[in-house]
Structure formats: C-alpha cells, structure tokens
Amino acid sequence: MKGLASIVLLLSVAAVRAQEPVMQQRIQTVSQDVGALERFYNIHSSPNRVARFNEYYTGQLADLKKVNFDGLDRDSQIDYILLKHHLESAQRRLKIEARVNDESAKIRPFSSEIIGLCEARQQMKLINPEQCAIAMKTLSDDIKKIRSEIDKGLKVDKTVAFRGANILDDQKRKLEEWFKFYNAYDPMFSWWVQKPYEDTHKDLESYIIYVREKLVGIKEGDKDTIVGSPIGVQGLQDELDAELITYTPDELLKIAEKEFAWCEVEMKKASREMGCGDDWKKALEKVKNDHVEPGKQPEFIRDLALEAIDYVKKNDLLTVPPLAEETWRMIMMSPEQQKVSPFFLGGETIMVSFPTNAMDQEQKMMSMRGNNKHFARATVFHELIPGHHLQMFMNSRNRPYRQMFDTPFWIEGWALYWEFMLWDKGFTSTAEDRVGALFWRMHRCARIVFSLKFHMGQMTPQQCIDFLVEKVGHERSTAEGEVRRSFGGGYPPLYQAAYMLGALQIRALRKEMVEGGKMKEKEFHDRFLRENEMPIEILRATMSGAKLSPDFKANWRFYDK
User: Fold this and answer.
1) Pick the residue with more confidence: 20 or 380?
2) With bands split at pLDDT 50, 70 and 90, how would you rate the model's confidence at 228?
C-alpha cells in the first residue's frame, strides 16, 4: 500500500507539472539547479566554483535562445525576460566576485591548498593520510612565510585585507569540516594528521587575527569597529545595470538631495505647528522624548498595527486576506541584535526594538528615544500590513517561483511606498506624527547618500555615522547600528538606497497606471503583489501591456517626469 501511495503521489505531482507553463517549469528547474550547485560548490573563493557556475549560466542562456519567444503567451514572455536577465546578471556578478577575490590573493597564497583538500573531500576522492599530514605542514610553512613578508613591509590596501580576512574565515571553517569528516572515523588519518592539523589550525587562526589587527585595524574581540567593503563607482554602475536602474550614482545622489529638500520644507511646517519655529531639530527632540514607559511597547505596537490594518481595509486600498490579518506575531529584540538593528524588523513576525534591563542608562535612553511613539507610528505598518508581512504572505501564494528574482527595489520599495501613500492620504495627521514620518523619509534619503558615497570612496563609516546624526537627527547609537547593518556584509551594495528609489519607482508606476486611468487603486496594489518579485521596470512592462521582446532593455526615467 505504501508503494502504491508513493506512485499516486508521483503521478499527481507529474500531472500538476504538466499543467504548468513551460517557462515556469524552466525557472523552477534553474532555481533548484542553482541551489544544488551552491550547496556542492560551497567555497565562494574557489576558481572551480566560478568556472562551474559560469558553465551553467552559459549553457542555460544558450538553451533559452532556442525558445520561440513570439510563440509564448504574455505571462511566459515576462518569465522569459526575467530568467534571461537573471542569468545574465548572475554571470556578470560572478565575474565581479572572482575579480574581487583575486585582489586579496597576495595575502593568502596558500588558499589553493585549503580549497584543494576540501574539494577533494566533496568529490569523495580517496586520500592518503601521510600526504595529508605533509599538506598540513606545507600549509603551516606557507602561512608563516606570508606573515613574514607582511612584517617586512608588503603593502596591502585596508579594504583588500578586510576581504581577504573574511575569505580566510570561510576557508578555515571549511578546513575544520574537512578534518572532522575523517578524524576518528579513519584511524590512520587521525594517527598521521591530528597533530599537524592542530598546529596548522592555530597558525591559520592566528594569521587571520594578525591580518585584521595589522592590515585592517580591528583588534581581536572588537565587534564594534565598522570597515565594510566599498565596490567603487564602476561596481555601483554594474549593480544598477543588474537592477535595471537607468541612472548613474551621481544622478541618484541628486535625487536624494531633492527629496531631502522636500522633507526639510515639510519638517519646518510641522515644527512651526509644534511651536518650535523653523528649528525642526528642536521639534524632533520633543518627538523623541515622547515614548511609552518600559514594558508598554508591545501593547503600543499592537494597537498601531491594528489601526493601520483597519485604515487600509476601510479605505479599500488593497485586499487583506483574513489569514494574513490573523497570523502576524511579535517578538522582542535582544540588546546584541539592537546593535545591528536599532529599529523594528518585520515580516510575519515584527521584531520590536526597546531597552532591556541589561543596557546601561545611556543605552536605555537612546533606545527609547529612537523608538518613540511617533517614529513607531510611521514604521509599524511598513513591517506588517500593508508592508512586509502582507507582501510575504502574498509572495508565497502567487507565482512563488518568481521569488528567485528578488530585488530590494521591489521588497523594500513596496513597504516605503506605503509610507508615501498614507502620508498623502492624511493618515499622518498630527504635527508630531508628521515629524516622525519625515524623520524616516529623511533617513531613507540619507541611506542613498551615505551608502553610495561609501562605495564611491567619498565617505568613511565614521563619516556615515556623523552624517546620520547631524543631517537626520539620529541618536548616535542608532546611527552606528544603521551603518554597521549597512556595511557588515549581510546586504548587497544597493540595498539601503533601494528603499527610497524603489518607492519612487512604484509611486511613478502608480501615477502612470492609476492616475492615468488604466487601473483602479485597489486593482493596482493587488496586481503588484500577485505578480511577485521582479525589477520594477519589468513590472511596469507587465502592467502597461507594452510589446515585449526577448532583448528587453531598461530605459525608464522614473524620476525626471
């Protein structure tokens, strides 16, 4: 019976797949293929990984050209364009990644030895324990040799050294996996290799600390120093091309300046209503000090979330599925986590940032001021409904295969777009709430400025922190957390700029579709979520009914109009 059930299940899966459009099937296959390759070729600094992925992308692109584009239905044509763009961008980023890895090769000339051992294990090649012991001794000698060369004056750029140390951290973990795979299971391996490995591991660990201290300037145990890895002007332009953004970094900085100027005008209006004249920073100080008492933040956040849900439903702005409304949750952020994320994070679960008893008095006050009532009112709906929670709920239920084409311009742009929308509709009615909302809009303008200028080599991390404090009015601790989060390696270079720029794209698209009379407002918002993730310019082509071609090119100047 069990075998029969398995056959029935396989047949039902095959029947479902047979009904799926060909391009959807292809995208799902590519997604699974890439996942399998990522898990197998899991040393990112390996030339073999680069070569294998390049071979895969080249083969997929060649195979895609064989598809009769004109014979596809419109949804499948969109999927074709998305897949082609994704593969081309992935191939381009692969080359950039390889080039960046090569820059740090001179401080890790022994990396190939580690990669060779680890990849041989992954490929299940037979080993010679005595040769492995010799390899450990060679590796240890090579580490000492390059360390001596640095002591003698080998010049290495700080950023390159930082990247190199991070690569070595990853290789050290892979070498640990290699050793644990054989040790104790193979008695001859343990007899030959254990002691040489332990010595080599200590040398490698010590060398990584040495590189960070001597070449980067980060002392052992220092988790607060921010270094980052700027990619340069050309690197930014490559990323913009991959995101189908037809602007240069300098043009985007000018957009940020214009948006910031608008915010300052509105800040002064609200400031005058609060009796602070044009001194909007004085008004901001009053707003910061209006926070709930300790222990009351969860209740306050719950009420704000319910208010926003009620508002969008009553005004029929978009569809809110009852289950999405029912199942969002809340957790509190740890003090350690707040060093990186000083404000809320969200999705199905909103993570609330507020002081704990483990913080000192200064930290407690900065956290309460940075998460005051009016800042919170402008961001809770960003994280939940109609923002990220609703977004993720719909993602998992509508064309989920398109999540492979994720982009922060779609993800973060949507949530910030709702801050624009609710502002325009008068949801933010009091002067204090407007100051809170404007603080966040200024913050998103500032993200464009400091993140792009950092990558262009025009601002250091410390200058970015000072900029947020002086220009936007951040608490210093929240500014440090913001910059640490931006450059800590967990986000791609354009992520912080994508909030404001993505929102501006969606606002421009709404103007074209809704104000242009092509769609009703609720229809526009529902359609946006049902199409799932993609660059906004391709979404524009999807909604507008524009004629599509397999060689789709970006040409949308969404801000100039």
Assistant:
1) 380
2) confident
Q: pLDDT tens-digit profile of 276-312? A: 999 999 999 999 999 999 889 999 999 999 999 999 9
Residues 6+ apart with CB under 8 A from 417: 502, 503, 506, 507, 510
Q: Which of 53, 83, 103 is the last residue of a domain?
A: 103
pLDDT value of position 481: 85
**Looking at the structure, do residues 59 and 178 belong to the same domain, yes or no?**
no
Are 44 and 61 part of one and the same domain? Answer: yes
- SS3 of residue 329 by DSSP: strand
Coil vs helix vs strand at 121 = helix
Mean pLDDT, residues 110-137 taken together: 97
CA–CA dist 541, 545 (Å, integer): 6
- Beta-carbon contacts of residue 463 (< 8 Å; ≥ 6 apart): 450
Do residues 92 and 242 lie in contact, with contact meaning Cβ atoms separated by under 8 Å? Answer: yes
The separation between the first and the last C-alpha atoms of the chain, rounded to the nearest angstrom, is 66
Q: Give dist(CA 255, CA 512) in Å, integer.
A: 20
Query: How far is Cα 424 from Cα 550, in angstroms, rounded to an integer?
Result: 38
DSSP per residue over 358-419, as a string? TS-HHHHHHHHHHT-HHHHHTTHHHHSTTTHHHHHHHHTTSSGGGGGG--HHHHHHHHHHHH
- Residue whose pair of structure tokens reads 């995101």 in the numeric block: 243
Residue 224 confidence (pLDDT) = 74
Judgement on whether residues 111 and 96 belong to the same structural domain of the protein? no
Q: What average pLDDT does the segment 519-538 reach?
A: 98
Distant-in-sequence contacts of 10-16, Cβ < 8 A, 24+ apart: none
Same domain, residue pair 360 and 451: yes
Q: Which long-range contacts (CB under 8 A, 24 or more apart) does 135-138 make?
A: 136/193, 136/196, 136/197, 136/199, 136/200, 137/196, 137/200, 138/113
Instruction: Identify whether residues 242 and 276 lie together within a single domain.
Output: yes
Tell me the β-bridge partners of 331: 351
High-pLDDT (> 70) share of the chain, %: 96
Residue range(s) defining the domain that contains residue 200: 105-216
